[in-house]
Amino acid sequence: MILHEGLDKSDKWLVQPGVYPTLIGSFLANTDNTRTFNIPDNIPNIAQKFSATVSIYSGINNGEADMALWFWTECDGNSYVRFKRVRYYVQNAIAYDSETFDFIHCETNRKLFAKVDNPNRYVVVNIYATGYSI
């Protein structure tokens, strides 16, 4: 019986019912400077890749625009980039979105990088470690 195509016995889940996953980092998307986060210790050095759930929320915006977000790891001179695009707009409510990305893991550079364009102080980004593969 196949439970999910692409799953392998080497996949390790870091999410448990009722327990929040480990926070890799959190930031206000109020600058276009690159941010750097340490990969948490519950992702072992021998991991080939890891999964991270990115959650984004915004609200009480005073304008309307698109925002691009890039998340990546670096290994042996290569960047492994994931991309997400959101739109914020004037509203009296909170908008929320999340997505899980897989990243190449490099034991010699245990960092995750993030960058946005079109910064907005009313957009918050949280990144959680949710699994890895050996």
TrEMBL record:
Protein name: Uncharacterized protein
